[in-house]
Design goal:
Elements lengths: L2 H9 L4 E7 L8 H11 L4 E4 L10 H12 L4 H12 L7 E5 L1 H7 L1 H11 L3 E4 L8 H9 L3 E2 L2 E2 L5 H10 L4 E4 L12 H11 L7 E4 L5 H8 L4 E4 L1 H9 L5 H16 L1
Parallel strand pairs: 1-2, 1-9, 2-3, 3-4, 4-5, 6-7, 7-8, 8-9
């Protein structure tokens, strides 16, 4: 049983909170501390963003986070080192790397999977790797016992959901709206209908993200989802904080979100 499977089993039907931050933002020396701050606030799983120069699925908030990290030349190898450092004090909280295919391809899928496993990574979500093109990456991840997390959009047809159901491991990430991370206009009722339909095809837990910005929205989404994913709002908190206050403010916000979904 992977850490992700174990965490959902331990929750026993309670809803998971999955916060996202970008590795290296606002500087590389703070990432591990911020990860521990997320756990202090009640994070069940951490999604750690791999900085990328062309984050096509991300809105301006997370784009700026990648830019801040890239100023410090943070790359995939540095991200894996950060996870390894995090694991020295936390061997239970699942960590999923979220990002784009190019850095993984540049490293080589087999080398990435081997290094990720050694560092303590539990899964990977590659935004621009559709299931039809995922065989080589998934084989490398499967060989190391790492989970492959797939995105499902509001426009994903049932036939494609069926294919994702065969391939996905750990959980699936339902994009709650048409747009980029941090976008608005979240239709709670529509999300609920879509999740009900997805449950007919998917045996895995369903996490919902994109557009969840406060405790009220998180609570509403948790009524039907198995997990709530929050990214842009947390990255905004980091952006507005000072290096001295960032961890405390992040922990406080995560605790508010966790209380709302429980």
């Amino acid at each position: 049983m992977s850490r992700i499977e174990k965490r959902f089993a331990e929750l026993a039907g309670k809803k998971a909170l999955i916060p996202f931050i970008t590795a290296g933002d606002p500087n590389p020396g703070m990432t591990v501390s911020l990860m521990h701050g997320l756990v202090d606030g009640g994070a069940d799983i951490i999604e750690l963003g791999v900085p990328f120069s062309d984050p096509m699925a991300d809105g301006p908030v997370i784009q700026r986070a990648s830019e801040r990290a890239l100023i410090h030349k943070v790359g995939l190898r540095h991200v894996l080192e950060m996870v390894a450092e995090f694991r020295r004090n936390d061997d239970v909280t699942p960590v999923v790397l979220m990002g784009y295919l190019n850095p993984l391809c540049a490293m080589g899928y087999t080398e990435f999977a081997t290094r990720a496993k050694a560092a303590g990574v539990d899964g990977a979500l590659t935004v621009d790797c559709p299931p039809e093109e995922s065989a080589e990456l998934q084989a490398a991840l499967d060989a190391e016992g790492l989970d492959t997390v797939f995105l499902i959009a509001p426009t994903t047809p049932p036939s494609r959901v069926a294919e994702i159901a065969k391939l996905a491991r750990g959980y699936v990430y339902y994009v709650s709206l048409k747009g980029v991370t941090g976008a608005g206009h979240l239709d709670i009722d529509d999300v609920a209908r879509k999740i009900a339909a997805l449950r007919q095809q998917l045996p895995l837990p369903i996490g919902v993200g994109f557009g969840i910005r406060d405790a009220e929205t998180a609570k509403a989404i948790s009524a039907t989802a198995d997990a709530v994913v929050v990214g842009s709002r947390l990255v905004q908190e980091i952006e507005a904080a000072t290096p001295e206050t960032a961890r405390e403010q992040l922990t406080r916000l995560v605790a508010e979100l966790k209380a709302a979904i429980r």
